Amino acid sequence: IILNRQLKQKKLRTSLFRNLPPARSLLDLVVRLTVLGVIILTIGMVLGYLMARDRGASSHLLIALVTWLAYLGLLGTYFVRGITPRRLSFAVLALFVLSLLVFAFV
Fold first, then answer.
1. pTM over the 0.85 mark
2. Are 72 and 42 contacting, i.e. CB atoms less than 8 angstroms apart?
3. Exposed, middle or buried: residue 47 (CB in 10 Å: 0-12, 13-18, 19+)?
4. Does residue 7 or residue 32 have the better pLDDT?
5. Closest by CA position to 26, among listed 74, 92, 96, 98
């Protein structure tokens, strides 16, 4: 996101942005890491379902299911319909922050 803004303003003088890979490589990395995260979340949900013994765990599983569906919806939109890299980056970042906030208070 920051790299995109710096590219548009043509302000790439800092050494941080000079050493970054191309924006397309960063987008591919975001997609691959999001897919990997969904796979790990899926495994965690299956194991959590198999090990759930009390009601407290069921609320965590329900929230994890909603988070999982949100990530699947985002990836499905990216692969089927296609969204801009900027929107994908913002959506992944927003979902991650919301996931952290939800699981912090549950």
1. no
2. no
3. exposed
4. 32
5. 92
